[in-house]
Amino acid sequence: MLALEGTDGVGASAGSSGTSGAPHVALTTTDDASLVIALASGGSASARTLPFGWFPLTRIPLGKGEAAWAQYTNQAVAEGGTVVHVVDHGSHQPWNVVAVEMGGDGS
After folding, report:
1. Cβ 92 vs Cβ 18: under 8 Å
2. Model confidence over 61-90: pLDDT tens digits?
3. Residues 97, 15 contacting (CB under 8 angstroms)
4. CB 38 within 8 A of CB 98
5. Residue at 10 is within a domain
6. Domain boundaries, position 65
7. Per-residue pLDDT averaged across 47-62, rounded?
8. In a domain, 92, yes or no
9. What is the value of pTM for the model shown?
């Protein structure tokens, strides 16, 4: 569960899976002043390697060397229609990732 202030709810979402390579997905925002939250699983339980502008929210070891994690943008995406690339450079094993836009409420 995650409580967010200053949003008007869920906007766009996107998901992707892979058997190798870095977890990645592209999400096109639909609202101005949106935040993007990504949830992923697979890969190693080691710490994530996130690109600039992304911050870890949580990491949960799942056993057998795998983990689930969440990351988010800490700056609002200025305009709807912006493509946000979600990536994690720290995993190269089978993975799943979903990204969700939380639209700004104008406040």
Report:
1. no
2. 888 778 888 889 888 888 999 999 988 876
3. yes
4. yes
5. no
6. 28-104
7. 82
8. yes
9. 0.85
